[in-house]
Amino acid sequence: MSTRSRARAARGADGGGAESALSTATIYDVAKRAGVSPATVSRVYNGVGVSPAKTEAVQRAARELKFVPNSTARNLRTGSANAIALVIPDIENPYFTETARGIEDVASAAGYSVMLCNSDGDIAKESTYLGIAASAHMAGVILAAAGDDTDVSALRAAGRPIIAVDRSAGGGVDSVLMANRAAGYAATIDLLDAGYRRVACMVGGMAIETSRERAQGWRDAMEERLGSADPALLYPTTFHLEGGRVSIDALLAAENPPDGFVAGNNLIGMGAIQRLAELGTPPPAYGMAVIGSLPYTIISPSSVSIVRLPAREMGMTAARMLLDRLAGDDAPPRTVVLGGELLPRLDS
Amino acid sequence: MSTRSRARAARGADGGGAESALSTATIYDVAKRAGVSPATVSRVYNGVGVSPAKTEAVQRAARELKFVPNSTARNLRTGSANAIALVIPDIENPYFTETARGIEDVASAAGYSVMLCNSDGDIAKESTYLGIAASAHMAGVILAAAGDDTDVSALRAAGRPIIAVDRSAGGGVDSVLMANRAAGYAATIDLLDAGYRRVACMVGGMAIETSRERAQGWRDAMEERLGSADPALLYPTTFHLEGGRVSIDALLAAENPPDGFVAGNNLIGMGAIQRLAELGTPPPAYGMAVIGSLPYTIISPSSVSIVRLPAREMGMTAARMLLDRLAGDDAPPRTVVLGGELLPRLDS
Hints:
six-stranded parallel β-sheet; six-stranded mixed β-sheet; disordered N terminus
């Protein structure tokens, strides 16, 4: 190992790695290049009167040298070392921005910034973001995995703590997950209790852990109450609004259509309710149970069962676990599972 | 200027600065530290069978040296140099996540990643994020400023292109803005045309440009049609759901309450409609016009006027401008203003 790489590894180990990415140009370098005194450079940056020509010369030299004035130098030097990357599959899903809110509140109180990265559920995009987090020497990563093929081995080899949220990210990674199977079960039982019988289940792609587990909860309930779960009633789509709309049309066009629907996440639920309302048959004409909240709704939807998932708490818990790891906690990996909560139905 | 700092400035100038932040440990360094051959290290990383003891030794050495295996090394090296920071004041506001969607679509097609930073409308947090963007050698920044005191001078001095969205960020910065005054005017006129007379205007804090301009549009309309705009009808709150709820209560408790409301953004609108519905007097009992969209609503709110603001287009335009600047465009700063669109009202 060369002396140079050893010195860098040592700097990296004490968390000061980000500093080496900075221009080291000083006020003296800027003064020399601009042909003015260091005091003049200082005056420009302190907003004290300097002639336009000299101001322009100092600014040009500073730009060319990528000089960073003192007032923000501390931020710049410690910057990404105090940042946490949060990689999520859908930035437009309020469930994940609520998770981000929880992470930020805890991280911010501890002096950490959070940078949010949207993988769009795409493994290649996700891998790019994980690479950026490592290359920018961020403190750690909180990850809602794009799917089963998510690969965190390089990040782990680079010594960054990782916390998985919502979906596990392989063995050996700390995780904060929802009780998804129980949520699917509770949503389905609530519809069966209300008298619906052919209850369909709409989830995201089956390469996503939360889809499989919520579907398994639906299956548990159908088998327990009706003796079997008709596979034709399980509809994998996407965890988006459009997925809910499309599923309703497809399921209602079937030979033996359902009389109730479990929506596997908030967006599927909103799309499904929208579509049922357009067709003139909003709940309770068909039963509807949604896993996750329905944020930003103007009118409380009556006759819709909601199994609330505590997204903000998930974020807060994950951030606390990451802070523990950053503080040196080297206990074996752990998994925290948060329970959903069936809200009282607002019957119309 | 020292040789060392000159070399760094040169590396920074050709965009390769991020590389200097990386551990330069090689497969040979790892092999030496682990006491195995380089071929063994390679086998570990290619998943070929190696004894558990040797695998463990290699992984430990790699962790200690922060060694990055080849498969992801390219990502890590070019990582943050191909990243754009997007700094917004509220990550839970769908208006900004829609903007982010537009930015990502354009940036991603050009090979750039987007890292989203939530300033919470706090100047100190915003400054930290701008510092991280510079220290991590990100390609550029797109910024929806926290307020009038936003300071981008350090970033500009560091030679990073900046595009302001939604709110301008001082002179000399490229901007993509909404026609806010026209939007405030159109929303107010629509309510006056519908027969409402005492039309109140709820906006965010007056330190935010969009608040002032939308309020000015309301004032224009009131003065044009009624001869004057009663200052008691202008209610500055926060651009959040709670702001809308609180404003309704405060305005309705006034001695001479309004009969209609212009909501200065989507969240104020949603909170205000929620609160009016709770009070048993949803629109059209009171007039309601919302600037911005009402996303994720399950039931199309009837009797609500909406002046849609093209958030996704704003993001796409900003990303294209940033890409132009990165490609060397050095034309003078420009401002693009996007028009809102009054949607047809859905009268009940």
